[in-house]
Design goal:
GO molecular function, one term: transferase activity
Transmembrane segments: 9-31, 51-82, 94-113, 119-142, 154-174, 186-204, 225-245, 251-272
Order of helices and strands: HHHHHHHHHH
Structural class: mainly alpha
Pfam families: CTP_transf_1
Shape: globular
Organism: Xenorhabdus vietnamensis
Number of domains: 2
Number of helices: 10
Keywords: Membrane, Transferase, Transmembrane, Transmembrane helix
Largest sheet: none
Strand content: under 5%
Distance between the termini: 16 Å
Helix content: over 70%
Radius of gyration: 20 Å
């Protein structure tokens, strides 16, 4: 169960405090250069800040509703992320039946299992049953054109945008000793550290970046940005240890694990966009691109964080 506890209030207060400061700075910069030619960097900054306001307000509303609200929120995120993923890679008419099952049966079922706290089935439903169902359905339809490519695309889309993401709200099902009714804090810890890692890697890259890590894949991701962003995010995670069941150093190690996985997730999603010749997965979030652009790091970080926490702390 979730609730508005003291630690949660402090955490949310800190988040909105940062947003207010960022909005004031953005407004001052916009006013400072209002008489000059439009500054694209400042305009982009303010658009991104407005996007963060929208996302944070929606998240708070979901928290206020309770566990059901958070599960619905992540289910909606999965729906749009899967839609963007499938839209990017052309499908055939014979795939429409399989996609109907994925969008309107399998994805909702995965989140129902989270709500039921049915850990055993939650863990194997998509990797086993859905993975076996999809090629069987495609074979029964009888369309063999690019059979392996089509099935693998849908399977991987389900794995990344539904199975992986569902591990974030699944943190609410963990029974951690001396941490009763505080699991929502753990979920926010994950989201804050992963998202701030993306932001800080971008900032350090812009300020100090010189050497690209994977030039052909993502020339904007630099060694300096990676090192500075990861280090700063680990320190941030350590500073937030008080909202978790972790000690100071355990929070640091957890932060290191999820920021590294988040970085890898971002690279993998960048590889898909590079392959398809696009900049963003979509435009649903102003200033941030598509849903999958915003949660690409979370796709890889959430399962690792969930299982590390479950193994060591329950």
């Amino acid at each position: 169960m979730t609730g508005i506890n003291r630690d949660l209030m402090l955490l949310l207060g800190g988040i909105f405090g940062i947003l207010i400061i960022a909005s004031v700075i953005g407004g001052i910069l916009a006013f400072r250069y209002s008489g000059e030619r439009s500054n694209a960097t400042i305009d982009n900054l303010n658009v991104r800040i407005r996007g963060w306001w929208m996302m944070c307000v929606i998240c708070v509303l979901a928290i206020a509703v309770g566990p059901v609200g958070l599960i619905i929120l992540f289910a909606v995120m999965s729906f749009f992320a899967l839609r963007e993923f499938i839209t990017l890679t052309p499908s055939r008419r014979s795939d429409h039946g399989a996609l109907f099952w994925c969008f309107f049966v399998f994805m909702p079922m995965q989140y129902v299992l989270v709500g039921m706290q049915w850990y055993g089935l939650f863990l194997v439903f998509i990797p086993v049953y859905v993975f076996l169902f999809l090629p069987a359905w495609a074979a029964l339809v009888g369309d063999t054109t690019h059979f392996l490519e089509r099935v693998a695309k849908i399977q991987w889309g389900m794995m990344v945008t539904v199975f992986a993401i569902s591990h974030a709200p699944a943190l609410l099902m963990l029974d951690i000793p001396n941490y009763k009714n505080q699991n929502v804090n753990l979920l926010l810890f994950l989201m804050i550290v992963v998202q701030m890692s993306d932001v800080l890697q971008y900032v350090f890259g812009k300020l100090f970046g010189k050497r690209p890590i994977v030039p052909k894949l993502s020339p904007n991701k630099t060694v300096e940005g990676f090192a500075g962003g990861i280090l700063a995010s680990v320190l941030l995670g350590m500073a937030l240890f008080w909202v978790t069941p972790f000690s100071l150093w355990e929070a640091g190690l957890m932060s290191l694990a999820i920021t590294l996985m988040g970085f890898i997730g971002g690279l993998c999603m960048s590889a898909i966009k590079r392959d398809r010749g696009i900049k963003d997965f979509g435009g649903i979030i102003e200033g941030h691109g598509g849903m999958l652009d915003r949660i690409d790091s979370l796709c890889f970080a959430a399962p690792i964080f969930f299982h590390l926490t479950r193994y060591f702390y329950t």
